[in-house]
From TrEMBL:
Its EC number is 1.1.1.104, 1.1.1.30. Keywords: NAD, Oxidoreductase. Pathway: Amino-acid metabolism; Siderophore biosynthesis. Belongs to the short-chain dehydrogenases/reductases (SDR) family. One of its GO terms (biological process) is siderophore biosynthetic process. It comes from the Eukaryota. PANTHER family: DEHYDROGENASE_REDUCTASE SDR FAMILY MEMBER 6 (PTHR43477:SF4), DIHYDROANTICAPSIN 7-DEHYDROGENASE (PTHR43477). The lineage of its organism: Eukaryota, Metazoa, Spiralia, Lophotrochozoa, Mollusca. It catalyses: (R)-3-hydroxybutanoate + NAD(+) = acetoacetate + NADH + H(+). This is Dehydrogenase/reductase SDR family member 6. It comes from Potamilus streckersoni. One of its GO terms (molecular function) is 4-oxoproline reductase activity. The keyword Oxidoreductase applies.
Length: 245
């Protein structure tokens, strides 16, 4: 038997990176996985693995309302969508600040607003896992001003929702990775004037001398999605290879 047999897992940002790895890992453990993303062409690659896919813009209330109406049952909601703005406070204009908070934080508010009532109504509760980061209230990181602020907000949001709905048998936790080797990271490194030097600098700050893989983050998410973590709520889980030590 799989660790997630019989569970329905809904997740955002499933087209690549951590979201894709989580979708595959949950399906492997027996869950019915419903993956969403704005990149529907890349997302459709998951259909071959038996994963249901939907195009979803998590910055749109209308999109989320229409999508949630299609979901009859939900056990696990994994809010993974996010954006990394690279810059200090003085590099960050208001448009970038507002977009970062809209995608990284408000999207979770929108998703939870739609799916928590379903979790309550179905009588079995539910499980929400939010993507945060070590670059947050846990640790300051260079050139991550607005990103760190949004991820600190995710931790506070997760704890607040956890305490409000614990009596409804709804658990809420967040995952706080360090640097993860994803297409998004590679894009950011390649955008630097000297990608090779940027890569070496990023690796140099990793205490284990390497990045995390998306699959390693997925293992933690599977644990939080499973009944193995049934007594865990309101917590942030650091998985950073010791970077925050």
């Amino acid at each position: 038997m799989g660790r997630l047999d019989g569970k329905v897992v809904v997740l955002s940002a499933g087209a690549q990176g951590i979201g894709r790895s989580v979708a595959l890992a949950c399906a492997k453990e027996g869950a019915k996985v419903i993956a969403t993303d704005v990149n529907i062409e890349k997302l459709k690659e998951l259909e071959a693995e038996g994963i249901e896919v939907h195009r979803l813009d998590v910055t749109s209330n209308a999109d989320i309302e229409a999508f949630s109406a299609k979901i009859e049952k939900i056990d696990v909601l994994f809010n993974c969508a996010g954006y990394v703005f690279d810059g200090t406070l003085l590099d960050t204009d208001e448009k970038s600040w507002d977009f970062s908070f809209d995608l990284n934080v408000k999207s979770m508010y929108r998703m939870c607003k739609q799916f928590i009532p379903k979790m309550i109504e179905q009588g079995t509760g539910g499980n929400i896992i939010n993507m945060s980061s070590v670059a947050s209230s846990i640790k300051g990181a260079p050139n991550r001003c607005v990103y760190g602020a949004t991820k600190a907000a995710v931790i506070g949001f997760s704890k607040a929702v956890a305490v409000d709905y614990v009596k409804n048998n709804i658990r809420v936790n967040c995952v706080c990775p360090g640097t993860v080797d994803t297409p998004s990271l590679q894009d950011r490194l390649n955008a630097r004037p000297d990608p090779k030097k940027a890569y070496e600098e990023f690796v140099a700050r990793q205490k284990m001398g390497r990045f995390a893989s998306a699959e390693e983050i997925a293992h933690l998410v599977v644990y939080l999605a499973s009944d193995e973590s049934a007594y865990v709520t309101g917590q942030e889980f650091i998985i950073d290879g010791g970077w925050s030590m």
